[in-house]
Amino acid sequence: MTKKSTTKPRGPGRMSAEQTSELDSRFLDVAETLFVEQGYARITMDEIARSAGATRRTLYARYANKAEVLTAVVNRLLDTAMAPHHEETPTKPRSREPRSQLLQIARELAFISADARAAGINRLIFAEAMQTPDLARQFLDLHARATDDVKANLESLYDEGALPRLPNSRLAAVIFIEMAASMPRLRALLGAPLTRKETNDLTATAVDIFLHGCGKS
Fold first, then answer.
1. Residue 175 CA to chain centroid, in angstroms?
2. Region (Disordered): which ranges (predicted)?
3. CA distance 72 to 27
4. Phi, psi of 100 (to 5 degrees)
5. DSSP class per residue in 36-98
6. What is the C-alpha separation between 175 and 65, in angstroms, rounded?
7. Is 70:134 a contact under the CB 8 Å cutoff?
8. Which architecture, in CATH terms, is 16-64?
9. 161: left (phi > 0), else alpha (psi -120 to 50), else beta?
10. Which of 160, 188, 189, 209 has its CA 20 to 30 Å from the CA of residue 182?
11. Which residues of the chain have pLDDT under 70?
């Protein structure tokens, strides 16, 4: 007698994990394009679903509202930018060279700020934030997330004795981020991005000034 399989077959309406991931990416790709090209306020959840070739119900199963879609779009951009840093962090903190570590982070922040996709999102946020509180919150949340990441790295270096004069770690992280990213962000917003050499020179100088101010000999 043949033993019956206990695995339930996937019904006609159920998607595989790969199909689900592809649909999630398609939703975010479509939403990002629509937000940047037409503005956040003008776009509806129905339009996002329709443009992605999916149903409204499928979209709402993943995101409760348009603000959550924008959150996912923005977080995906930051995840893409910071992934190399997280993947390459050694397991033994003391094996890290402080300047190399901070330079890597500074360049990641600078390049994501200058990225055309990020620039489009930033233009959207700056143009409509006063009329759309969700957008202002998105920018503040994004900045807070980046600040937390940099703050953790600075505190680790302080614990290792590499930054003996580190001030308030959160304020130091904010200053570090702006030193590295403000000019690339501004130039990208104006449609005149820095060259790779200009970005590398800027971030190297910013890191050296920051290390000197924090007491790194």
1. 18
2. 1-22
3. 10
4. -65, -40
5. HHH-TTT--HHHHHHHTTS-HHHHHTT-SSHHHHHHHHHHHHHHHHHHHHHHH--SSGGGS-H
6. 33
7. yes
8. Orthogonal Bundle (1.10)
9. left
10. 160
11. 1-19, 81-96
Long-range pairs, 15-19, Cβ under 8 A, ≥24: none
CA distance 40 to 138: 12
Q: How far lies 69's CA from each of 41, 43, 100, 125, 178, in Å? A: 13, 11, 35, 14, 27
Q: What pLDDT is stored for residue 169 in this prediction?
A: 97
Q: Which two tokens stand for residue 114?
A: 């200058």
Tokens for 16?
A: 């595989």
Output the pLDDT for position 12.
43
What local confidence, expressed as pLDDT, does residue 138 receive? 75
Residue 173 and residue 150 in contact, taking contact as beta carbons nearer than 8 Å: yes
Cα-based distances in Å from 130 to 43, 125, 136: 17, 9, 7
Please give the model's pTM, rounded to 2 decimal places: 0.71
User: 């595989």: which residue's tokens?
Assistant: 16
pLDDT value of residue 47: 96
Could you please report the per-residue DSSP string of 136-149? HHHHHHHHHHHHHH
Q: What is the CATH number of domain 66-213?
A: 1.10.357.10
